[in-house]
Amino acid sequence: DQQVKQNSPSLSVQEGRISILNCDYTNSMFDYFLWYKKYPAEGPTFLISISSIKDKNEDGRFTVFLNKSAKHLSLHIVPSQPGDSAVYFCAASLLEDDMRFGAGTRLTVKP
Amino acid sequence: DAGVIQSPRHEVTEMGQEVTLRCKPISGHDYLFWYRQTMMRGLELLIYFNNNVPIDDSGMPEDRFSAKMPNASFSTLKIQPSEPRDSAVYFCASSPWSGNEQYFGPGTRLTVT
Fold it and tell me: What phi and psi values does residue B78 have, to the nearest 5 degrees?
């Protein structure tokens, strides 16, 4: 039962352009959403999060948008840099409950 | 703090053998999670603990898998007997509270031949 889905397994963008990673979820009770970034041979690292009471959270080049009615989450990276090339996992959680991850999207930023 | 520590980093074993993966969470974190990562399914939650007590083990694939947390600073994930389809990267993560960002260890790459 995949409650969090990332339908694009991979994404390739040119350096300097915007990267948009998408995530859909099925459980309307999720109230906290996170993005993790993972480099090869390393564990995922926390990138940015958003509470369900907000629709946008920005941190430098990274912005997460939440559309609760559509049960959709997106991560925007602008401008994209080659060092952003990694696998990005979307995650959702319920307060006092565990976190569910999407399958990940591999982002490649070409110089 | 050294972060979440996992050992071993790599494990190669033969089918039928017992495998034990180890994790030391960040001190003070009340939650500990075990995940399995495969190419096909991405990150899957296997089990998580709150204050050393298993809360949800519904993600554990089958009875061959077991996890323990005897104290706040140590957890094990055991597979007995191991099978080739268990080959994956196993991550341990800890968190100060559920729903908050989790801090992942470097993972253990398990290969069962």
Answer: -120, 140
Residues of chain A with pLDDT under 70: 1, 95-98
Give the span between the Cα atoms of A111 and B10, in whole angstroms: 33
Token couple for A90 = 């979307």
Closest CA to B65 of B77, B53, B75, B76: B77
DSSP A55-101: SEEEETTEEEEEETTTTEEEEEESS--GGG-EEEEEEEE-TTS-EEE
Could you tell me if B53 lies within 8 Å of chain A, comparing CB atoms? no
CA distance B6 to A19: 32
Using an 8 Å CB-CB cutoff, list chain B residues near A32. Answer: 99-100
pLDDT at B12 over 80: yes
